[in-house]
Automatic annotation (TrEMBL):
<dbReference type="InterPro" id="IPR050534">
    <property type="entry name" value="Coronavir_polyprotein_1ab"/>
</dbReference>
<dbReference type="Pfam" id="PF21138">
    <property type="entry name" value="SMUBP-2_HCS1_1B"/>
</dbReference>
<dbReference type="GO" id="GO:0003723">
    <property type="term" value="F:RNA binding"/>
</dbReference>
<dbReference type="InterPro" id="IPR047187">
    <property type="entry name" value="SF1_C_Upf1"/>
</dbReference>
<comment type="similarity">
    <text>Belongs to the DNA2/NAM7 helicase family.</text>
</comment>
<dbReference type="GO" id="GO:0016787">
    <property type="term" value="F:hydrolase activity"/>
</dbReference>
<dbReference type="GO" id="GO:0005524">
    <property type="term" value="F:ATP binding"/>
</dbReference>
<dbReference type="Pfam" id="PF13086">
    <property type="entry name" value="AAA_11"/>
</dbReference>
<keyword id="KW-0347">Helicase</keyword>
<keyword id="KW-0067">ATP-binding</keyword>
<dbReference type="GO" id="GO:0005737">
    <property type="term" value="C:cytoplasm"/>
</dbReference>
<feature type="domain" description="AAA+ ATPase">
    <location>
        <begin position="226"/>
        <end position="453"/>
    </location>
</feature>
<feature type="compositionally biased region" description="Polar residues">
    <location>
        <begin position="467"/>
        <end position="488"/>
    </location>
</feature>
<dbReference type="InterPro" id="IPR041679">
    <property type="entry name" value="DNA2/NAM7-like_C"/>
</dbReference>
<dbReference type="InterPro" id="IPR003593">
    <property type="entry name" value="AAA+_ATPase"/>
</dbReference>
<dbReference type="GO" id="GO:0043139">
    <property type="term" value="F:5'-3' DNA helicase activity"/>
</dbReference>
<feature type="compositionally biased region" description="Basic residues">
    <location>
        <begin position="513"/>
        <end position="524"/>
    </location>
</feature>
Length: 752
């Protein structure tokens, strides 16, 4: 039996409720931090920069105001910024400066109430500029997305920059239907959407073009049944991303238009980095500040400014910048009173004109793009308004909230998801709400009104779910592949391309999978999610199982010894190491053995797994915090860091290039975190566990999925640095890992 209208309602209501909770939790967290810390403490923590002045304003793509801030010499003895944590892509607010030496409620001079921390102008850190000689930060640029209807934003002469949490994400997912939508046309309910909601079953045939990796594109096979969705499920290193790249290459060769998404900017950059060598014309959407700099030439910004049409917009841009500077610029040139109002009107007109001209440029670039890349979230941006794609591909789909996945899904006719539920899950704040006992189907009352449901999918279902009578929707019988609901999608190409398989039965992918479905019963019924941690990938796997899924089991990354522990403990020993990697070592890297001292080769490079056990060394961790906001601060362990540094130096001396090495930990205060490495790999990875204490506390290390990502990033060597006696007390899983390391790694104690 497939989903009934009541089940649909229950599902949507539950998603909406979970998103609301999440948004509240995120906002509470940010305001708690901002309100409970004094300005001085926020600056000390690197979460605020005080006493800043506006240097100037430029205009970026989309009419964004790029506000440049510095420390004016009038207020500071040095222009160099103190240590801070602002990085490109962070959300930030420019507020009025508050003196750090007085209590928060009053300002020093006037005694009048200061601008609240929730007032001011919000934007994204566009870039942080360094002093050329001192190589220290001296300026910061904030991109503010001001619409032409926006109020005049008056920047204070003396500003304070505050780092914000990412709560805006939920604002754009939870849409009040009174106030608009993502710009999706309502009423579109194509076969893909119906399958995802369990209104019709997936078509019986599976799923992807033939995959002869990187070879010539195969001839299209005779047409078979339609396939709306495909899941690529695989443990670390099994080539999920690699497979997606090949699929995209083949889809493009067939003349298809593809939207390629990831849960994070990193996931999208990872895909783009791997697509470019194939010469596939791709356009990366999103804030350039959030895109890796080597990939900037592929961004929409860069492609737009290179296009012939861009000259049209440049003149208006110049006028707009000069007008903005006289409004919000510094010093005496700053306009006041009626003159200011007049100039602001002019700015609005200029911005409108600039948008119009820029719109033409963007449209031209987008029309040429066969492959568009964006985070799921930014696929809802202006650039893709009303855009349609043949296929949407989402990598790292097990790290994305279901609601976020729907943003690109509503623009396509087919969907391919890749992921691994045993790697990083979506980040959720409202943890105390994670489990809910039972979700009663909502009754037919005002609770179900669409304005309350608010979720973007709700826009789509208007007209298909009758608000007053649950009996008026017609759910087709389960053996029917055609919905009785009208397909109102005018651009739907289902009649022309629905015959294309998404995963062919004779591909390498399908050979890796037993063809007989497991006994598990996949009902195809939509059930409300227990928490936001249930991803679309999990839900579809549960609903349709092997009918839509392909499992990858051969890994092409790690030495077999590195893969052994995760395989045995998380993947029922089913992870097979391909012979091309099963015994590869750092010594086999090009040129390394010839240039290295034989001693270094023997001592440093010759082991796939090394374990520095600091147990008994008293290398105690430290809380990177003064304890003012509870016990939430990040941890660091300086002695461990020194050990890591020595090992890195030994690797480099032995001939390994620094770009082939990554140092990762679960804690930001120590160095780059595990989360930043999902989807990536390095020849040598050093994993610093940080935790070492008398209380046997292990914090983040308990999270199996995070640890799984961490230990599966290396190709040829994993070096673990940690205190086995603290760590092994953390959980049975950690205990077995420590035991495994003691038996199978090259164990060294304390000092290098
Ligand atoms: N079929 C293949 N033949 C040769 N090399 C492959 C193949 N599939 C993947 N690889 C290589 O194996 C490594 C891992 O692949 P990829 O990053 O695509 O895996 P993944 O499943 O996305 O990994 P993870 O989930 O751990 O991020 C890469 O270096 C990739 O080039």
């Amino acid at each position: 039996m497939l989903s009934s209208e009541i089940q649909l309602r229950a599902f949507l209501e539950r998603q909406s409720q979970l998103l609301q909770r999440e948004r509240t939790a995120e906002i509470e967290r940010t305001s708690l931090l901002l309100s409970s810390c004094s300005p001085k403490l926020l600056e000390k923590k690197g979460l605020a920069l005080g006493g800043l002045g506006v240097v100037g304003i430029n205009i970026g793509l989309g009419g964004k105001s790029l506000i440049e801030l510095e420390r004016p010499s009038a207020y500071h003895s040095t222009q160099l910024f103190p240590p801070h944590s602002f990085r490109t892509g962070d959300l930030a607010r420019i507020a009025e400066h508050v003196s750090v030496s007085v209590p928060k409620k009053t300002t020093a001079k006037s005694g009048k109430k200061p601008t609240s921390d929730t007032q001011g102008v919000e934007g994204v850190v566009y870039k942080v500029l360094k002093h050329l000689i001192l190589v220290s930060d001296t300026r910061i640029v904030i991109a503010v997305d001001s619409s032409d209807s926006a109020e005049d934003f008056e920047l204070p002469e003396r500003c304070r920059l505050l780092k914000l949490a990412n709560s805006v994400t939920y604002d754009s997912l939870l849409i009040d239907s009174k106030n608009g939508s993502h710009g999706q046309s309502t009423g579109v309910l194509n076969n893909l959407i119906q399958v995802l909601l369990g209104i019709i079953p997936p078509s019986s045939k599976n799923a992807l073009p033939d995959l002869q990796y990187s070879g010539p594109i195969p001839e299209p096979k005779p047409k078979r049944g339609s396939a709306e969705i495909a899941l690529i499920h695989g443990p670390p290193g099994t080539g999920k991303t690699h497979t997606l790249i090949e699929i995209i290459r083949q889809l493009v060769a067939q003349g298809k238009r593809v939207l390629v998404c990831g849960a994070s900017n990193l996931a999208v950059d990872n895909l783009l980095e791997r697509l470019l060598p194939h010469g596939i014309p791709a356009t990366r959407l999103g804030h350039p500040a959030r895109v890796l700099s080597v990939l900037h030439p592929a961004t929409l910004d860069a492609q737009a400014s290179r296009s012939e049409e861009s000259a049209l917009a440049k003149d208006v841009k110049k006028d707009l910048e000069s007008a903005m500077n006289s409004l919000t610029g510094k010093g005496k040139g700053r306009l006041k009173g009626p003159e200011r109002r007049k100039m602001w009107e002019e700015v609005k007109e200029l911005r409108k004109e600039y948008r119009k001209r820029e719109g033409i440029v963007v449209k031209t670039v987008m029309a040429q793009a066969k492959v568009v890349l964006a985070t799921c979230h930014s696929a809802g941006g202006r650039e893709l308004l009303n855009a349609r794609f043949d296929v949407v591909v989402i990598d790292e789909a097990t790290q994305a909230l279901e609601a976020v996945c729907w943003i690109p899904i509503l623009k396509a006719n087919k969907l391919i998801l890749a992921g691994d539920p045993l790697q990083l899950p979506p980040t959720i704040m409202s943890t105390h709400e994670k489990t809910v006992k039972k979700d009663p189907a909502p009754k037919n009352n005002e609770k179900n009104h669409p304005q309350r449901l608010g979720w973007n999918l709700q826009q789509c279902l208007q007209g298909h779910i009758n608000q007053n009578s649950p009996t008026q929707i017609t759910v087709p019988p389960s053996n029917s592949s055609e919905s009785q609901l009208p397909n109102t999608d005018p651009t739907s190409s289902s009649s022309s391309d629905s015959d294309e398989p998404l995963i062919p039965e004779d591909s390498e992918l399908s050979k890796a999978v037993p063809r007989k479905p497991k006994k598990t019963h996949h009902s195809g019924v939509l059930r409300p999610s227990r928490s936001l941690e249930t991803t679309l990938f999990d839900r579809l796997e549960r609903m349709y199982g092997l009918n839509v899924k392909r499992m990858l089991t051969v890994q092409y990354r790690m030495h077999a010894r590195i893969a052994e522990f995760p395989s045995n403990t998380l993947y029922t020993s089913s992870l097979i190491s391909h012979e091309s990697v099963a015994s590869h070592l750092l010594t086999d890297l090009n040129g390394v053995s010839e240039t290295s001292e034989p001693e270094a080769v023997a001592d440093v490079l010759g082991f796939p797994v090394v374990f520095f056990d600091t147990s008994g060394c008293e290398y105690f961790e430290r809380l990177d915090d003064d304890g003012s906001i509870g016990d939430e601060g990040s941890r660091c362990n300086e002695n461990e860091a020194a050990l890591v540094k020595t090992w890195v130096e030994k690797l480099v001396q032995a001939g390994i290039s620094p770009s082939q090495i990554a140092v990762i930990t679960p804690y930001q205060a120590q160095i780059g975190t595990v989360d930043g490495m999902q989807g990536r790999e390095k020849e040598a990875v050093i994993l610093s566990l940080v935790r070492s204490n008398d209380k046997r506390e292990v914090g983040f290390l308990k999270e199996k999925r995070r640890l799984n990502v961490a230990m599966t990033r290396p190709r040829r060597q994993l070096c673990v640095v940690g205190d086995s006696s603290t760590v092994s007390q953390g959980s049975p899983y950690l205990k077995s890992w420590m035991k495994w390391l003691e038996t199978h790694a090259d164990v060294r104690f304390g000092e290098v």
